[in-house]
Amino acid sequence: MLNWLFGKKKTALDLSHITTDLHSHLIPGIDDGVQTLDESVAMIERYQELGYRRVITTPHVIWDCYKNTPEIILEGLEAVRAACQQVGLSVELGAAAEYFIDEHFVEMLQGGQKLLTLPGNRLLVELPYSTPLLNTSETLFSILQHGYRPVLAHPERYTYFYADPSIYHKLANQGCELQVNALSLTGYYGEGIHKMADWLLREGLITFLGTDAHRMQHLELLRKAQKSPWLMKYPFMNSSLPT
Prior knowledge:
- One of its GO terms (molecular function) is manganese ion binding.
- Belongs to the metallo-dependent hydrolases superfamily. CpsB/CapC family.
- The chain is of the alpha/beta class and 243 residues long.
- Helix content is 36%, strand content 14%.
């Protein structure tokens, strides 16, 4: 009743219409994401408060830095699941991986090694931030040839594409789905990335929204995305992912 005196109460952010987060780093100690099990549980509790019903966490697989295998990831997932069950969290937890496209990834793909996928046999992949691959389109097309659907993580962050943004249309037309980071809608990564995220959404090129949360701060900053006209109105396909 004293809101008039102390200011309006902050409106809680409700992302229940998104249903599923398909990009995060919640398995402790295996990449640059969370480092303790307690931190994992706290973040998953926050996901539940935000309205998410399913979280598919995606540890990095970057062979120069994070030599994560399906066995390492799935073992970590079970530990996180058990800890969340102990405190009564109801969010459904799964795991895939965020594969950095390097020589090791190409070897795994061509060698038929087991890869951890998002629902619908989708592979979440990322590109270098500073230097473009010489054969980006060909590599993504190769993923399709091997029976997977590539999902390109945070395309708005690859600034070398800005000189010729038609590459995004080319990738989408080839069958690559694009996943924007929610924090890109807040200016967290810089105004240029914010503008590119906005352009990709206006062009209708984005399929999925992801948090790419590495720490609690990232989830707390999502409140700033509430001001984005895209967050509540854009037809993200997260809720259409099969179970």
